[in-house]
Design brief:
Length: 160
């Protein structure tokens, strides 16, 4: 599956793509952005281009200049998430929700299934009653709850 790098204008889209099984890095989560002291500002185009090249990622952006400079890119015209998803679908991206999540919605790290007898944080359900996954990088726990259903419904409406 295509590895992606989303620029700062596409942050919400990252979690949707991760739930569809895409390795979707987000510009403001990059170590290079933190090292440059830009956690809440813009990440320079040259930085994004270098990361995309080094990591073999396709850039997803709303920035025409950045898209034109990238070796591989998807230029999105819309700022609304549903419209962005439609544009990606029209560009040939499979937007079906994975049965089992692969990437952390928060940091894009790999997920591992929590054992049915393992303990979870207070905010997460008991893994004996529902499947729970934990991010190997940030430690956040995930399960198929209301947010999962909302994203699945949004994506299904796009695909129809």
């Amino acid at each position: 599956m295509t590895r992606l790098l989303l620029d700062v204008m596409c942050g919400k889209l990252a979690s949707y793509l991760r739930m569809c099984g895409y390795d979707a890095a987000y510009a403001l989560d990059l170590d290079e952005a933190e090292d440059a002291g830009t956690p809440s500002a813009d990440v320079p185009d040259d930085t994004l281009l270098a990361v995309a090249r080094e990591q073999g990622r396709r850039i997803v952006t709303c920035d025409r200049d950045l898209a034109a400079r990238a070796e591989e890119s998807v230029l999105l015209e819309s700022r609304e998430i549903e419209d962005q998803l439609r544009e990606l679908s029209a560009a040939g991206f499979d937007l079906s929700i994975d049965d089992e999540p692969t990437y952390c919605g928060a940091c894009n790290g790999p997920l591992e299934r929590v054992g049915s007898k393992d303990q979870t944080p207070e905010y997460a359900p008991e893994p004996a009653t529902i499947d729970v996954w934990r991010c190997e990088q940030c430690g956040q726990h995930f399960w198929k709850g209301g947010h999962w259903d909302d994203v699945a419904e949004t994506v299904a409406a796009i695909e129809d």
